[in-house]
Amino acid sequence: MAVDTCSGDIWSNVIQQFDAIVLGAGAAGMMCAIEAGRRGRRVAVVEHADRIGKKILISGGGRCNFTNIHCSSDNFLSANPHFCKSALARYTPEDFLALIRKHKIPYHEKTLGQLFCDRSAQDVITLLEAECRQAGVQIFLRARVTEVSHGFEVRIKGSDSLRAPALVVATGGLSIPKIGATPFGYQLAQQFGLRVVDCRPALVPLVFGNEDRKRYCDLAGVASEVIVSTGGQAFRERMLITHKGLSGPAVLQVSSYWAPGQPVNIDLAPKREITNSLREEPSSRNFQSAKAAFRAVLPHRLADRWVDLNQPSNWTNHALEEWERKAHAWEIVPAGTEGYEKAEVTAGGVDTEELSSTTMESKKVPGLFFIGEVVDVTGQLGGFNFQWAWASGACAGRAL
Q: Count of CB atoms within 10 A of residue 183's CB?
């Protein structure tokens, strides 16, 4: 059966009956619909955009970092750190890899267990569309929902109303509004009486304060491997200086754990002694030798700037030891983040205390499910948020 893709400008004004309605045609919503359709359920997927999976298409530099083979609950942030365990155990990275292999999609592993498509993210979209066709799922595009009633009647502007005994909210978070992110899912949760944990941008670049911007932003484009830490979390990956502040994998990772006003600490030379040569050779203690020592472990522009801004008061062993310590504990207090426009995901969301960890169903409203990014479960960088989408979507779909 071909996917029944309907455009809002051609529907008649009638009520269509389904077994389940899924709001959102992203990774979580599509996986949910596929699993439910495989079980013989008549499923409608409602999407306000003109195509499915827009966020999938831009992910991983256009190649979709679709999962991570090292996925565990430790890779997720939530008010309840145990909530995600059940779903992740019920649908594993190997389960999604089975789909990738079934559709003969070439892929490769990058660092730290990250899996990417060899060609493009369109391969994942094609996979999801094919599985929907096989499962008999109907996909309604360009469908603007105007109202959702407590009887799970979904009214769509200028088009049919849809009705079902089950409603799955897979509307995503607030990140990347240019591709259509809205607060609709959170508003629905509140409409039905569910609590929502305060949302904030996550996996997002940090912005320097005024003084640090003057000191470092002309170094935009300089990158180095560092350890960045805050809030009891530390990540060793690359850091990138931007025209606004700091980015790169290490900074994006730690941003999810950063709170306004908190300092961020940066070890510029993990497990390396920068000033060792200066301490061993007293005759070489001068700024030229110091810059050479820092250039040996840091990009030259950053090394020179660090020496210029952090000159020791004298060349004693004690002063050099303090200089060394500072290089491993550069402390900044970001002025903020670059916001949802540059955030890869949204932290916070529908309170996990409101949901079943095995089915994603609301404890208060039978038949109402929340999955994916709209829930207060946020993955680290590296394919973990996709795995949460697949896993939470599969659990809900199997419960429908």
A: 16
Q: What is the pLDDT of residue 72?
A: 97
Give the contacts of 94 (CB within 8 A, at least 6 positions apart). none
| CB distance 287 to 311 below 8 Å | yes
Task: Confirm whether 4-201+346-399 and 206-337 share one CATH topology.
Answer: no
Q: How far apart are CA 5 and CA 297, in angstroms?
A: 56
pTM passes above 0.70: yes
Write the burial class of residue 358 (CB in 10 Å: 0-12 exposed, 13-18 middle, 19+ buried).
middle
Q: How far is residue 140's CA from residue 43's CA, in Å, rounded to a whole number?
A: 11
pLDDT, residue 378, reads 98
| pLDDT tens digits, 286-338 | 888 889 989 999 999 999 999 999 888 888 888 889 999 999 999 999 999 99
pLDDT at 152: 97
Structure tokens at 97: 């890899």
206-337: what CATH class? mainly beta
Question: What whole-number distance in Å separates Cα of residue 339 and Cα of residue 244?
Answer: 12
* Residue 305 structure tokens: 């700037």
Contact assessment for residue 370 and residue 166, using Cβ atoms and an 8 Å cutoff: no
Q: How many helices (H) does the chain have, and how many strands (E)? A: 13, 24
Structural contact between residues 395 and 367, judged by C-beta atoms closer than 8 angstroms? no
- pLDDT tops 50 at residue 164: yes
Domain ranges of the chain: 4-201+346-399, 206-337
Return the residue matching tokens 């180095």. 224
> How far is the CA of 347 from the CAs of 197, 198, 337, in angstroms?
9, 8, 13
Q: Is the CB of residue 219 less than 8 Å from the CB of residue 348?
A: no
Cα separation of the two ends of the chain:
21
Bridge partners of 230, per DSSP, are 233
User: pLDDT digits over 89-101, tens only?
Assistant: 999 999 999 999 9
Tokens representing 347? 């932290």
- Residue the block writes with tokens 């060792």: 276
Q: Return d(Cα 36, Cα 33) in angstroms, integer.
A: 5
The topology (CATH level 3) of 4-201+346-399 is FAD/NAD(P)-binding domain (3.50.50)
Torsion on CA atoms 76, 82, 88, 89, rounded to nearest 10: 150
